[in-house]
Amino acid sequence: MKPRKITLLGPEGTNLYIFFQFLSFNLISWVNLFLISKDFTFSISNIVFRQIIFSILGIVVFFIFTYIPIQNIKNLSGILMLSSTFLLIGVLFTEESLGAKRRYDLWLFDFQPSEFTKVVFVIYLAKIFTENSKSLFSFFLIGLNIVMIFLQPDLGTTFILLILFFLYFYISDAKLLNLILVLIISFFLFLGLLELNVVSQFQVDRITDFYSSSQDFSQSQARLQISLGGLTGQSTTDNVSVFVPVQTTDFIFSAFSKNFGFLGCLVLFILWFFFAIRIWILIKRSNLIFEKYLLSGFIILIFIQIFINVFTVLGLIPLTGDPFPLLSLGGSSIIAISSVFGIINRSFIENNLTI
Amino acid sequence: MINFKRISFIYFLILISMSVALINIFNLQFINQDQLRDKILKQNYETYYIPAPRGDIFDRNGNLLAGSELNSFLFMNLKKINDTNIKSYKEFIKFNFTEMQNSEIENLFKNPSVLVEVGPIEEKEYKFIKDIQNFQAFEIYQLPKRVYKYNELFSHVIGYIGSPNQQEQEEFSNSKYNFTVGKNGIERYYDNILSGSPGIITFQNGDIVDFTPPKKGKSINTSLDVNLQTVVRESLMEGILLANKNFDSNSTIQRGASIVQDISTGQIISIISIPDFNPNQFIEGISEYDYLTLNRSKAFNNYSIQGLYPPGSVFKIVAYWLALNENLYPEGAFLSSDKIDCQGNLSFGFNDGSKQVYKDWKLDGHGLVDLGSSIKQSCNVYFWDIALKIWRTFGESESESILQEYAKNLGFGNQTNIDLPFEKFGIVPDRQLFEEWKVSRPELVRPEGWLGGDLMNLIIGQGAITVTPIQVSNAYRSLIYGQVDKPYLVEEYFQSNPKNIDISSKSINLLLNDFGKVTNVGGTAYKAFSILGSQAEDTGGKTGTAQNPGDQNSTSWFVGIDSISNPKYIIVTVVEEGGSGSAVAAPITRRIIQYLKDIEMTPVEFGEITE
Asked: Do residue B22 and residue A269 have CB atoms under 8 angstroms apart?
């Protein structure tokens, strides 16, 4: 890898495409939150202002990761995984909020270590799959992280990590028989965890009830809200509104559909898909196996989150409480996704790719 | 190996998922649009709020000072009450809540709200819990109750809670639906942190469709100390009792305040105001008679930050500091150790030829005194001489307010900005203020305005000057620490704003030594501290006896320092109309110092009468 000169915009070879795409997602979330709150005062309690602060922090994080060579990230993966483990153990000693122990209370926002874990998990899996060094210890670390998140309890994130784990086996060209084996093990692990009774009956009921009866209250409200969107979003003269709980985080997509309509959703999906296609080209061209694994993992991570969120809002799957990347209000999620964008930008630079 | 085909297959799945999502959205937005819109228009929501428990308040050692209890209450969903079942509900309530009167029960059913609170069920028996399951309209929710574990002990500093008025609902965002707000003390100052977010129950056509549970507020750790606070309160009460026995005042002496401040951090370790009240009374509902009695005795005032008193001789440290810094001593003296002869009075002339005689409290005089011994014996003449020197040197020039400038630099005349609400400012009078008063409050000033006599009064802490006990404590702390900063109770939210003041470490040592002499042989507080024996040598302080207008007794002041060699705490005690500082406030402070130094505590005994 040849050393890079530092220019004003970043290391030599920086192409602005990823950065602009990153900015446009942030911008969309500001406009969307503003349309929800209709409030543009400069105070910490204003959600638009909060989101802008998080975005600015995110841009800083984006550039920090742009300066870190991919090789260093690979070398650091073990340490990152260990620190994620400690953060997850530590969070179990914090004060319970809304029936779960998920966050560290920092001054400006609550830090959710599980968002950090998702990114580190991908990096770590990429490393052990590249080196084919699937030791007992590495599986222990992976298992420990999943269990710790489960104990919070956070079913949604547990599920995401398990899917990531399975899909890594899938893309690593594992034999079909082995895949089925991993799938069965994951399934029984999940059932075993449920037996621990950490998850309240309430949460289990939410899943089992889902398939037996109708949707959750907030989900049916969200569907109603989406219907107001029409082709280009609810017109400003239309005063009909629907009450949707956790509007700014888990159910942000229903507000987005209401505000921007079918065309807005289409444009948002196309933007994300273009982004995915560029990474697909990058995966194809890259010479580093680690990079291929890393980028595939990030794409899987981002799109699982998007689909879990969208399908929850549409009432197609049970309620899990998962944010929409760069659209939901929330510091931890934005910072985590910003680091992913930063790393992706770095690998574009290292591959001298200008598309 | 990595299988690129399988990655491409994942991309294919992404495309499929997007299509599924878009088809669903299209369905909602175009195919079923009208039907769903009707449904929205038919929706009929009502919300009911469940107050959240407030955060806990702890002392410095983790003792719980104010906590929240949760108790279960029975609620009734009025939308589920109809003509056929209303009778059975009424009978059930009448049978199980015998303390309720018939009219109260009737009123429950007339409430316009969707949900009404019936009563507590914490002590009900199992059968009751089983019975209510047959009644569809009953719901059980937990309501928080504030508990102040130490009753009166922290009444002013922690404050109490009550129903928010219109203005408070706007100022404290959570108060509207928690139905409570901090009315005073830490409860008010940190209301936004202590108050949690209320729970929300959403009803649709009478059915509960969503419940967001209440979220408890954040807890606060204070710098207070339960044990010290207990000792300080006891000592102050003893002292006030003693003062009443020893004076024939027209009114009973009943008010006082006491503060213990950590010198190195500025933290308040203990803060007491007497008379006090039990904040738990506000939770249970205080009777009008009790409230009026408390209000008449002004028990709701926190005298430690709201009491405005003339400081008397405790104010002399301002002139002491000025004299050292500006080399400004009485006529004929050029060093702090140069002595003048105090004959018990001072006569002097003004430019207009008039002569005046000022009498010291000790009529036969203090003899030869220097700066240090004037603090020790609280000699007024020495300080009057300094005032005369200022008056004659600076005349009516811009520098004539140099004493006031020094006082303001120590924080007098302004809020200390301690983390408690409703702090008073106090007054440091000067020519400008007197000119303003001539217009606005002419009864307070002479037509001539600001005169030399006013400056002479000011230098010994008399006349128009008023200070709060917290200002005095923080001023002494600042001088000894060499820096002015806000005093505070909660470190987590403390934003330091330090201002260095011009005092050399040599001057600080000199000052501490002179404080030490006050509690030892020949000092004004010697008698009050003599019970400490040789241990009194390492203590110090300053007495103050501030005269009040009319036939009111003097205000009794004492500022104590636990150790001269290693000063850790400033202890300020003031007893309103308590008389001599050395007789009342000093022995109270002495008992607190005994506790701080781990010496066996002895009762508060009446000290010597000085100024």
From this structure: yes
Strands B220-221 and B256-262: unpaired
Report the run of H or E that residue B392 belongs to, with start and end: helix B380-394
Mean pLDDT per 10-residue segment, chain B (611 residues): 88 94 92 84 82 96 95 90 87 89 88 87 82 87 94 95 90 89 95 92 83 91 97 95 78 87 96 94 85 88 96 95 93 88 78 69 86 91 92 84 95 96 95 91 85 91 95 97 96 92 93 95 92 92 91 91 96 93 94 95 86 72
Strands B220-221 and B57-58: parallel
Phi, psi of B312 (to 5 degrees): 60, -145
Tell me the pairing of strands B45-50 and B64-77.
unpaired
Annotated domain spans of chain A: 6-350
Three-state secondary-structure class, residue B299: coil
What letter represents residue A346's amino acid? R
Reduced to 3 states (helix: H, G, I; strand: E, B; else coil), residue A168 is helix
d(CA B555, CA B309): 7
SS3 B573: strand
> Which of B3, B12, B14 has the most A C-beta neighbours within 10 Å, making it the best mutation to test the interface with A?
B14
Find residue B77's DSSP bridge partners: B115
Contacts by residues B493-497 (CB-CB < 8 Å, ≥ 24 positions apart): B493/B190, B493/B193, B493/B419, B494/B419
Q: Nearest Cα to B56, choosing from B269, B216, B175?
A: B216
Among B residues 11-30, those touching chain A with beta carbons less than 8 Å apart: 11, 14-15, 17-18, 20-22, 24-26, 28-30
Rounded to whole angstroms, the Cα distance separating B585 from B272 reads 14
Write down the H helix ranges in B27-173: 33-42, 86-96, 102-110, 126-132, 155-158, 166-171
State which amino acid sits at residue B208. Answer: I
SS3 label, residue A324: coil
Which of B125-129's residues contact partners 24+ apart within 8 Å by CB, and which partners?
A: B128/B96
What SS3 class is residue B387? helix
> How far is A131 from A136, CA to CA, in rounded Å?
14
Architecture of the domain defined by B226-514+525-596: 3-Layer(aba) Sandwich (3.40)
Question: What span, in angstroms and rounded, lies between the C-alpha atoms of A13 and A34?
Answer: 36
- A343, burial (CB in 10 Å: exposed 0-12, middle 13-18, buried 19+): buried
CB contact under 8 A, B7 and A276: no
Taking phi first (over 0 means left), then psi (-120 to 50 degrees means alpha), and beta for anything else, what does residue B323 get? Answer: alpha
Closest-CA residue to B611 (of B183, B310, B232, B400): B310
Q: How crowded is residue B603: how many other Cβ atoms within 10 Å of its Cβ?
A: 12
What's the CA gap between A158 and A171, in Å, rounded?
20
A269 touches chain B (CB under 8 A): yes
Q: The CATH number of B47-221 is which of 3.40.50.2000, 3.90.1310.10, 3.20.20.220, 3.90.950.20?
A: 3.90.1310.10
**DSSP conformation class of B519:** T
A227/B33 CB distance under 8 A: yes
Q: Looking at B51-152, which runs of residues are DSSP E strands?
A: 57-58, 64-77, 115-120, 138-148
Q: What angle do CA B532, B538, B544 make, to 5 degrees?
A: 80
Non-local (6+) Cβ contacts of A351 within 8 A are A282, A285, A286
Domain ranges of chain B: 47-221, 226-514+525-596
Q: How far apart are CA B582 and CA B518, in angstroms?
A: 10
Q: In this structure, which amino acid lies at residue B430?
A: D
Rg value, chain A, Cα: 20
Residue A94 one-letter amino acid: T
Return the residue in A171, A175, A273, A286 with the most chain B beta carbons within 10 A, the one to mutate for interface testing.
Answer: A171
